[in-house]
Amino acid sequence: MIQNGNLIRLLLDGKIISKLTTLDVSYEREMLDSTDKYSNEFKTVQPANKSFSISAEGFYVNPSDKNFISFSEYYNDATYWTLSGVTFQTASVADPFSFIRAQRTSSLASGDYIQSVLIPAVNFDNTEKTSLEANGCTFSVWLRSPVNTNITLSITDAATNTATNAIVVNSTWTRYSVSMTGATLTNATVLTCKIECTTTGGEIDVFGTQLEIGQTATTYEPTGIRFMNLFNAVDNGTKYNAIITDETTGHVEYAGDVYVSNLSLTAPQGQLATFSCELTGTGSVTPTTI
Predict the structure, then answer these.
(1) What is the CATH number of domain 63-213?
(2) What was the pLDDT predicted at 26?
């Protein structure tokens, strides 16, 4: 099935809900009796829905514990990202770690940008706001371009203070960052992180945006669907397209439409938690070679 357990991901509608250190998957197809109740023939059965049962360790209880950017790999999500002059190609590409998780833009023009806007009253609690104002913050992202392209990374706070880092992106994956030594946050204003092209350039590959407290870019943590959204999905009977994958070229991933049920979370400490749910398929589950 999937070879690299520490890299396996569970995605719903293309958005990560867990970065897994362990994963147990059971897979079954129930056989239903299809014999007419008045028939004298031998009993016959037919395949019914397939289902996955999943348990995982490593789900981030609150993605903003470290990385305050929501949906840190899903730049087409208009709820969390603003795109100006930027469109992303349909197919994902290999990221800095050779997994198929990065997104590729169309060719860029000067002034085109990708922007995440954070609302202090929503994205930060009072302790986090105090720490960020005192210790500053760092915005980081991996970028690559087939031709040298001028990009500016910036953070702008509530008082319109701006920290910038002008870089030239080349064909080698590099993690770039910009740090703000202090930030002013109020509930009525926003904190903005932007990746902006400053000259006409080529396509840009983008992966792993992160905003964190402090002056150094530390280990990247992806963010995606929040756990409360899954509880709402159970209550509302929301259907998702589920994918279980390690996103390694040549490996097999499994996808199908599912409903989430029997959802539970045990969070004994910090971010690391035990997460479990059942995903019941509405039809066939499709294996695909990545």
Answers:
(1) 2.60.120.260
(2) 60
